[in-house]
Every structure is written in C-alpha cells, then in structure tokens.
C-alpha cells in the first residue's frame, strides 16, 4: 500500500495511492477524498447482524472497500486529531484497539470476531481487532504515536486509554492502577501490564480522558419543567 501521510503529527491525513486493479479497505466514515477512477462497496467485519449491533452501539464494524480499474487515490483521516503510522505485516499479527484501525491492504485480515481479548477494555467501550496476513496496515491515534520495543521478559505498564496496538507475541494482563482509593479518587483506572518480546504502540492522549472531560462540562437536564 503506497501511503503519503500529511499534516502529522497533530492532524494526520493519509493519501492512499491505488494502482490499476488495486484496492484498499477503509474504516467506515474515514474516507475524506477520492481522485480518479475509484469505486466503493460496503461490507461488515464479523457478519451483518454483528456489524449492525456494534454500529448502533457507537462503534461501527462496517468497512468500505475502495477499488480502481485504472488508478486513483483515497484520502483517509481519523475522527480524532492525532498521528497515523504504517505498519507492514509479513505473516505476523498485531492486536489493534478498534478505534485505531484506519485502513489496510486486502491481504490483511481484520478479525472482529476474535474473542481472545474479550473484556480487555472493560469500561472503556473498546475491543481489540486481530490484524494478520500480508500487507500494510494504517493505524491512527489520538495524539502522537510512540512505539516501545520490549525485550523478552521486559515489562511496561500502560493505561488502557493510551493503548493503540501491540504485537501478538506480547503477553498482557489487566489490573487496577492501584488501590480502590487510587482508582476512585486518584483518577487512575485500568492499566495493562505488557511483557515482551514485541512492540507496543501507545498514543500520547487518552480518548477515555477526553470523554470524561467533555462529560463533566456538558449541560445537565433534570427533565422537570417549570
């Protein structure tokens, strides 16, 4: 996948060039522009009804496949401001939080039906996507993207709101950041304990923190009338 990323790291915009007979799979709603001979078809990850249920729940599992007979470009952008990076896959696999997957080559399988990480982001409304196969994967983040490479046995702790992706070779467990007092009063929630070998991609801002910040400032209506 030939990609040119512009506007980063704060407002990344990715231009995906499609060769003749080429195609790219894009997260629903992420397409911003097209140029040239480009057609689009819509499908779902994990079956129609599952895609519909997830979409109604606020996390779309629909995807758009853009194809070109003679060549063209597709411009894609994430919903939140931040950076994007291209991750090549060569038969390996990585786990990506659902809001981080932006686009990928047709040879990359994006599996939303995988249940191995069920409950990983409990309370954050997010799930993990297992991305595997051959080709390039375009990953987006809220804020900047940092990559940490863990040696075998080396560990790091990451707030779940800052996790973007990690290699499938990385082992992880989920726990509270500290005591219940720290969780409730200190503003720290769930964290992931990651142990190498492998890479961990994190974002410099937390989407869950953004939601909490906005929620505290939204007007409240008690439903009563005067």
From TrEMBL:
Query: Per its UniProt record, what InterPro entries does this chain match?
Result: AIM24, AIM24_sf, Trp_RNA-bd_attenuator-like_dom
Write down a Pfam family by its short name.
AIM24
**Superkingdom, natural source:** Bacteria
NCBIfam families cross-referenced by the UniProt entry: TIGR00266 family protein (TIGR00266)
What is the name listed in the Swiss-Prot or TrEMBL entry for this protein? Uncharacterized protein (TIGR00266 family)
Please tell me the species this chain comes from: Sediminihabitans luteus
